[in-house]
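User: I'm designing a mutation panel for Leucine rich repeat-containing protein and want to avoid disrupting the core. Could you give me a predicted structure to guide residue selection? Please restate the sequence first so the numbering is unambiguous.

Assistant: Good idea. Sequence first, for numbering, then the predicted structure tokens:
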Amino acid sequence: MDLILNTLEELKSGALQGCTRLQLVEALTDFPKEIYTLANTLEILDLSNNQLSNLPDDFHTLKNLKRLFLSFNQFKHIPKVLKQCPNLIMVAFKGNQICEFAEHSLPRNIEWLILTDNQIKALPESFGEYSKLKKLALAGNQLTALPESMSACHELELVRLSANRLSHIDNWLLELPKLAWLAFSGNDFNRSDSLESEQFSEIGLDELDVKQQIGQGASGFIHLAQWQQRPIALKLFKGNITSDGYPLDELNCCLQANEHPNLIKALGYINEPSQLGLVMELIGEGFRNLGLPPSFDTCTRDTFENGCQYSPEFVLKVVKQMSSTLAHLHKNHVSHGDIYAHNSMINDNADLLFGDFGAATDLSKLVPYQQQCMHGIEIRALGYFIEDLLTVVSNENAITEQLAAIATDCLRVEAIERPSFSEVLNRL
């Protein structure tokens, strides 16, 4: 969610009195004390993209603060003063230099924690006290293990652990009762060292006539291009690491997924020394996003445009196609990790196209029990997917009643009680 950019001059003049949101990008090296004049109303504070390395000891004066963004600063530790903020439920420190995460640094009510792209080698042993956490982003750190106390975080729904140094994945993590979106590619036990594909061919960048950029995602830029006298879509990955992990792992998972009618069709891959890429079939006109990303309030759940409505028949067709796609992915030992309406494309005929493997994980290196757990985690994500679509259904009938029953079963707390993808398909 974009916030309106404010200025330090406005803050000092008193022009922002009574505001609930504040965003300052002014190369700040020190915390502006004038922010305290908003203590009675301020709920969202965004000081990302500055030069801050610490917070003052009286920061908890901001007693109504709910969400704090300090991404892309110079922090090397998580300030302990945060634990004294009574209403703070969301903290983001993406892209700092954090290597120190001391015990009891955060408020126990924290629900959403973003620590992507730092230098954290270990989480505190007391991490389990953050038992209300729903969303946890830790990709791109140096974690070698997770504290067992984290098994008490029973509210966790989304966890990102890709591009760390984990030597294994713990069973207790896979058994968390509400976990639905999990990614852990690019660790010591499962990191891709090279592109591995028998099905798809390598394509040279010089074989492509790149026209223009037509889109952008977390891990790369999408371009319109020509290849062998046909228009195609070309995804060029950014850098060595993305918000979800390494581009090489994403590309390998996409190729490992192979072909399915509802997957955006891969045609080949780019493997240049300084550039990885994916050549894909161009999505036809008329396709659009099925939903919108989660908001601050929904945290892990999708949102939809105002007035959005889908008929029960439309939703049923979409759910059938998604279930078939996920069954196919798991047959090929790939978990998607990001099963959402906002990652799905549909047209007016309810034809589904699914892609974006940024949070995908190769399951082939897991033992059978762990593969089964991952199956159950993604079944839970399918349950949420169905539930979200039922919030915008145009009317209720026997179809919506049956879909709601399937969603309920997919969301059972005990994973062993959840149906398999094949069982869901049979019921559909």
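For picking mutation sites, this is relevant: The CA atoms of residues 336 and 360 lie 4 Å apart. The chain has a mean pLDDT of 95.
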